[in-house]
Amino acid sequence: MISKRIIPCLDVRDGRVVKGVHFEGLRDVSSPVELGKYYSDAGADELVFYDITASAENRGLFTDILREVAQNIFIPLTVGGGINTLDDFDRVLKCGADKVSVNSGAVRNPGLIDEAARRYGSQCVVLSADVKRVNGAYHVFVRGGREDTGIEALNWIREGISRGAGEIVLNSMDTDGVKGGFDLPMLQAVCAFSDVPVIASGGAGCIEDFVTLFRECPQADAGLAASIFHFGEVLIPELKRELKKQGIPVREV
After folding, report:
1. Mind telling me the catalytic residues?
2. Whose CA is closest to 113, among 89, 93, 78, 130?
3. How confident is the model at residue 17 (pLDDT cuts 50, 70, 90)?
4. In the chain, where the domains are located
5. What class has domain 5-245?
6. Which of 22, 74, 219, 241 is exposed most, by the fewest CB atoms within 10 A?
7. What is the pTM assigned to this prediction?
8. How much is the average pLDDT of 119-132?
9. What gap in Å lies between CA 115 and CA 163, rounded to an integer?
């Protein structure tokens, strides 16, 4: 079995890492440069960097801080926020990103996924989907979770994969920041048809939540979290030791 990945997420606003609940009530956490280096040294498998207000503010992603983060880590880096064109892909990759995450920009222009996959390869294109239940259906949200597109999420993710997305980050807005566990029904629904890696995001509150994720949804390739890592509630070396103890393969710290 392929090793499961543990991925911290840096939600960056105005040059600082922030975290909230259900995408709201953001509070300051730390410097993205310091935190990124800490996670790289602590045994994280990858790092995700989201400029969370770039789309809502209709601007490009801040690159100065991104470049500094990339220079201080030694693990793969996925970057998203305000990615609307191939030029945005190019700019972020030149700053040191290994993969580029698209959400709002791909919803507005689905062809961006095709174009980016052709130019940079599918392995570089990550489709991030912010998904919330609305009247019993899964809806895609954009602009940092502020806008309900009305698009049915499972069909959208299928389309994204068919267009060339090489990885899916499934962000459950229902469980985001609540620390009650990952959204297993939503994850299982996506993993049932996805033939590309799926990263679970939203809801992790303790080590056991990761154990449950990989046991109940073994097709999930990775678990992504923010606040429990940022505030020291879960330490990555301890998490990996417990996963290994439970028979879940992980890369050694």
Report:
1. 11, 130
2. 89
3. confident
4. 5-245
5. alpha beta
6. 74
7. 0.92
8. 98
9. 9
